[in-house]
Amino acid sequence: MTDLSGRTVLITGASSGIGANLALAAASAGARVAVAARRADKLAALVGEIEAAGGTALAVSMDVEDEASVIAAYDAVEAAWGAPDAVIANAGINVRASALDIAIEDFDKILGVNTRGVFLTAREGARRMIKAGVEARGRVLLVASIGAHKVLPGITAYCASKAATAHMGKSLAREWARVGINVNVLCPGYIRTELNDAWFDSEGGQKLVAGFPRKRLMDTSDLEATALYLVSDASRAVTGSVFTVDDGQSL
């Protein structure tokens, strides 16, 4: 179900957290993995880890807000391996602040990375797939959040960006259905990452976790099976769907 042999997968936001974990998982499943982010040192370390385990990986610099940077990253992947036939648009940021207090520059940055960046990544991926003729196997996976459909206190901008991403996925799926590109959305629950590490060590974060039905955070590995399925050949008939993987946190 999750065999990715012969596939080239590009993953954004791959320098840490969910993106790095999915890169390792995709490589273990047989894919050639292009890891994209801004932090070159982190990407180099990840490529080394993948190659040490017998996988194939390539680091490409990408600022998802900058269309020229996105195009250049795809150019680098295509020069090495040809057009990717699967893309995981995972890059995202957050700034914890109430709607009354958030600086408009922070609001714009969150939307710029989490929504504009996802769109630019997905669109360029689709363009490459169509041009190369690999769209019949094309897979695009947008990473959103349970914040797309559940109010998460104190992060209105983040929730808005993820809700936009979830609906964007359905819209792109409809638009690209006739050319054979499947687009789906993954909405993870709370996972400890660089974005929220300090928060979960705080009293408020610990209180939040205590309120979950299972009173625990998820692990990045909990997303692997769903994500790999959605970028594999096995998901041929799955497009326009939004998958919530949250260990019951949104119940």
Automatic annotation (TrEMBL):
Pfam families: adh_short_C2
Domain of life: Bacteria
MF GO annotations: D-xylose 1-dehydrogenase (NAD+) activity
Keywords carried by this UniProt record: Oxidoreductase
InterPro entries from the UniProt entry: NAD(P)-bd_dom_sf (IPR036291), Sc_DH/Rdtase_CS (IPR020904), SDR_fam (IPR002347)
Assigned EC number: 1.1.1.175
Family from the record: Belongs to the short-chain dehydrogenases/reductases (SDR) family.
The protein, known as: D-xylose 1-dehydrogenase
Species the sequence originates in: Caulobacter flavus
